[in-house]
Design brief:
With 114 residues, the chain is α+β, with helices and mostly antiparallel strands. The chain contains four helices and five strands; from the N terminus they run βαααβββαβ. The termini are far apart.
């Protein structure tokens, strides 16, 4: 039997991983910001075709584009289960998996100016 007066820490699910900034990474060859933007646009345009719900893909995109604190709120609100703290692997409440490539999570260390 649980205690009537016990409380969970406000806004924290102990089973949920907290979001952190992605680790630095290097693209196979230097790319421009324009090329990176094109890769990201193509991914987000086709992401719903990989499975899962469009609403979750939209929430993940918003989380990726937000600062870490807002990203956490977005993920929590959408019921997204974070497997990797950098959001590279997530699940929805029904168990559908969402894989996000590095290039949508952060910029490479070898980006070159246009």
């Amino acid at each position: 039997m649980g205690c009537v007066g016990s409380k969970a820490v406000k806004g924290v699910d102990r089973n949920q991983k907290r979001i952190k900034r992605p680790k630095p990474w290097k693209h196979t060859e230097p790319i421009t910001r324009t090329q990176l933007k094109q890769m990201r646009d193509e991914f987000w345009d086709t992401a719903p075709h990989y499975g899962g719900k469009k609403e979750i893909w939209d929430a993940l995109k918003a989380a990726v584009e937000a600062d870490v604190n807002l990203a956490q709120v977005i993920v929590d609100s959408a019921g997204i289960i974070v497997q990797s703290e950098d959001l590279s692997i997530c699940y929805d409440e029904r168990g559908a998996k969402y894989d996000l490539p590095k290039y949508v999570l952060s910029e490479p260390t070898n980006i070159k100016e246009n």
